[in-house]
């Protein structure tokens, strides 16, 4: 029998990786509860031309093993309703992050070498500063949330602030925190980021509403001297 797929060196390295297994154990992750998903994905892979070419190649190599997996993650998982259902069962946020996660998985596979003793995982954050930024942004938004809502209410007089979608309030409150607490971030960068977040996570029309309110808030914060940004920002 053709055991090339079973003998795939990249799959074996991942399966034997202390780094991968330790992280899975710490987060209590695993696929043993989803045999139907695994069966479906394997059958989907086995039916592809690139899998048939891999299995029938005259020679095997670590590079070919890695290429097979990278292609699988690129082509088969982005649009897989059964996988989406499994991810949402574990966290409602995971399905939204799938595209980004697949990019990181493919990058990790591309960086693997047969000489490596273990899988070299990409860091959770680009730098310690990024991790500290997220923590500080969250903490300051949480501590000052009611104050932020009161400030938002001044610019939504025709709206009942309690009836504004919770996600809209959260997005605007976090944006205000970033505006006043992180002077090195240009105003336009902050506004563009949170408008994009609204498009992705909130209701239709929310991005337009949030854009209008944040424009007024930026103007008011500037007049009040609360917006300390470098010249030109």
From TrEMBL:
Gene3D superfamilies: NusB-like
GO biological process: DNA-templated transcription termination; transcription antitermination
Alphabetical list of SUPFAM superfamilies matching this protein: NusB-like
Family annotation (Pfam families): NusB (PF01029)
Location of the NusB/RsmB/TIM44 domain: 124-218
Gene Ontology cellular-component annotations: cytosol
Entry annotated with the keyword Repressor: no
Keywords annotated in UniProt: RNA-binding, Transcription, Transcription antitermination, Transcription regulation
GO molecular function terms listed in the Swiss-Prot or TrEMBL record: RNA binding
Similarity annotation: Belongs to the NusB family.
Name of the molecule in the record: Transcription antitermination factor NusB
Source organism of the structure: human gut metagenome
């Amino acid at each position: 029998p053709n055991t090339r797929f079973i003998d795939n060196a990249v799959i074996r390295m991942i399966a034997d990786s202390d780094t991968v297994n330790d992280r899975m154990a710490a987060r209590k992750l695993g696929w043993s509860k989803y045999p139907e998903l695994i069966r479906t994905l394997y059958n989907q892979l086995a039916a592809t031309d690139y899998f048939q070419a891999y299995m029938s190649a005259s020679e095997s190599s670590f590079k070919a093993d890695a290429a097979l997996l990278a292609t699988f993650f690129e082509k088969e998982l982005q649009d897989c309703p059964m996988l989406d259902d499994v991810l949402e069962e574990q966290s409602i946020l995971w399905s939204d992050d799938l595209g980004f996660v697949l990019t990181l998985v493919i990058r990790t596979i591309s960086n693997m070498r047969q000489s490596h003793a273990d899988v070299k995982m990409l860091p959770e954050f680009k730098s310690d500063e990024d991790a500290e930024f997220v923590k500080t942004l969250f903490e300051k938004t949480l501590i000052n949330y009611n104050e932020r809502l009161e400030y938002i209410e001044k610019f939504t007089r025709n709206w009942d602030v309690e009836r504004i979608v919770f996600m809209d309030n959260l997005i605007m409150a976090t944006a205000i925190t970033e505006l006043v607490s992180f002077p090195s971030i240009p105003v336009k960068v902050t506004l563009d980021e949170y408008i994009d977040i609204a498009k992705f996570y909130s209701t239709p029309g929310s991005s337009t509403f949030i854009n209008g309110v944040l424009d007024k808030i930026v103007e008011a914060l500037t007049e009040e001297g609360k917006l300390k940004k470098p010249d030109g920002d």
